[in-house]
Amino acid sequence: MEQLTTGAGTPERTRIVLAEVVRRRDHDRARAELAEQTQVGDALVRGLVRAQLALALRLSVVVAIGLGALPLLFAIAPATSTIKVVGISLPWVLLGVVAFPFLVAVGWAYVYLAERNEQDFTAVVRRPER
Amino acid sequence: MDNPYTVPAIVAVTLATLAIGFYGLRLARTTSDFLVASRVVSPTWNAAAIGGEYLSAASFLGVAGLILKYGVDVLWYPVGFAAGYLALLLFVAAPLRRSGAFTLPDFCEVRLHSRGLRKLATAFVVFIGWLYLVPQLQGAGLTLTTVAGGPYELGALLVGVVVTANVALGGMRAITFVQAFQYWLKLTALAVPVIFMVLHWQADGRPPVTPSDGLTFPAATSLVVEHHATLTFPDGSTQEVRAGEELTFQAGDQVPHVSGVDTANDLDWLLPGNDAGGLFGTYSLILATFLGTMGLPHVLVRFYTNPNGAAARRTTLVVLALVGLFYFLPTLYGVLGRVYTPQLLITGETDAVVLLLPVAVLGSGMLGQMLAALVAAGAFAAFLSSSSGLLTSVAGVISTDVLAHAGDRGPGQRGSVRDFRVAALVGGLVPVVLALNVASLDVSQVVGLAFAVAASSFCPLLVLGIWWRRLTDLGAAAGILAGGGAAVGAVLVTILGPPLHGWSAALIAQPAAWTVPLAFAVMVAVSLATRRRTPPDVGTTMLRLHAPESLRL
């Protein structure tokens, strides 16, 4: 992976535009805060980690309820397992067919939301409030 | 069985694997190529490769066999095998890729800087790898015996030797392509026959899967008795049989229950909640498979070949979809097996159902034999790909963490290509010897145990290491020893010990429900007690694990 050098060494070649100089400086400052573990930088990272963990845990709860509750349901209310869907009993339909698209859907939602969290984080770092 | 297509099909798959391996060998020049495929593998290839590596003998043969035997309760195996990738995606995929670690011992060093912990992790990687390899080789032995009548030992040896040679010569770069090819081969090998078989079942007038008056033989069947047993027929009559006797059943005869062969009767098979361990067993299995996947060494290695964290996430999602797609199929084999191969319920060798079903359903005409050969080739692809992946990771940790130090190189130095080859030979030899000497259990059950060990050792390490700042090296080591150690003990008792009954049997046969919480609890408690040992650079590490690469920090 190519590593852009900032500071000492050969500087990155950039086209100089007046407006961009200001933006870049802010950007660099925020990056430095992250890298140097100042209080601001640390709080930013903690916020990101907390947001991503909360997202993962929320979706785990969705799976725990959607799939994890099934054995309990079948045990408490055996009548549910004799329900037929297109001639096949419900547990077979749920576990043999529906479970897989359900998992993929949760995974898709996670990828979408996790990337949005990261974009929010990047936006805060790139454009710090003044 | 005299199927003229089977042996050529198996030979073709083996040769194709070797050929792609040697083609890769010409591309693999550096140690980095050997170990991590130089990180130039595209996400689509990578996802297919992960899928190909993951769908082992347990998925290809074992799941259908368990469904034939036990019915709806074991559907949790395929669901859990797929859901494991969701847990991996939610908690591990992107941060692990960003950590730059490519094996679990590497992760220990990156996150906690502890050589001791690294050694402990190495030991667990090798144990899990071998535990997972043995049933693959046994499955190969079973396949060769079933489809070609060859001796059991030959199949296990053949796969062992081919895989060891391929890994030792080609390394990771080569097998990425092999694995991706094998995912599609496996999917085709199950999907095409099942289409024909379902059509045939329709044309047969849809014989019921659970007939009201018990299962019957679809055709005349004769079996040779191997052990003394008691047959119980559905009408209540019993018959004693002795070893060497030949039993003959006519088409339409009822299928008896055999003492000593553990199968579910019709109602238990159809409805949930009747398996041996009850609700505890089911939840234990769910925990082991959902959380175990992230701790499997051959799965984690693959994440390093993604270019960045976001790509690792997308790859995992594609894998989840590919694996989920595959798992529709074994269920159909298990269900059809009840109609067309009930004799397996008498012998107990239900792992063979996938291999026998095409001929049993479609007859021994050319179509049936061709499809049976395709399934056998797919099964061999399953053994070859999973075993290659496992052996690569086992050899990787042996060469970097065991051999490298013997060679008087500094810590952190990657082993040489020669070390890797020696490690592959050692890593391949041990499971071959074990497979030939340890009694055969259900393939999926042994794999389930490997998942339980992974879930009780590496899952807490990864989840807490990635999300919890206060984890310490001592805490991690204590948690792995307590949870993983307990799970290893349970595995050894299950495989080597005497049969157990009652609650102890449930606790030992499906240990995850108590070993996983134990591992988490010990890890957290000891970490809090050794708070001073929190690594000073944990802030930097967290930043590296979680910040998107687009910031270029």
Automatic annotation (TrEMBL), chain A:
Transmembrane segments: 55-77, 89-113
Entry keyword Membrane: yes
Membrane as UniProt keyword: yes
Keywords from the UniProt entry: Membrane, Transmembrane, Transmembrane helix
Protein name in UniProt: DUF485 domain-containing protein
Species assigned in the record: Phytohabitans flavus
UniProtKB/TrEMBL annotation, chain B:
Any one GO CC term of the record: plasma membrane
Annotated keywords: Cell membrane, Membrane, Symport, Transmembrane, Transmembrane helix, Transport
Subcellular location: Cell membrane
Gene Ontology biological process terms, A to Z: plasma membrane acetate transport
Pfam families: SSF (PF00474)
GO MF: acetate transmembrane transporter activity; symporter activity
Transmembrane spans: 6-25, 45-68, 74-96, 117-134, 154-171, 183-203, 280-304, 316-336, 356-384, 422-440, 446-467, 474-497, 503-526
InterPro entries (UniProt xref): Na/Glc_symporter_sf, Na/solute_symporter, Sodium:Solute_Symporter
Top-level lineage group: Bacteria
Chief place of localization: membrane
Entry membrane topology: Multi-pass membrane protein
PANTHER family, per database record: CATION_ACETATE SYMPORTER ACTP, SODIUM/PROLINE SYMPORTER-RELATED
Family statement drawn from the similarity comment of this UniProt entry: Belongs to the sodium:solute symporter (SSF) (TC 2.A.21) family.
Entry protein name: Cation acetate symporter
Organism: Phytohabitans flavus
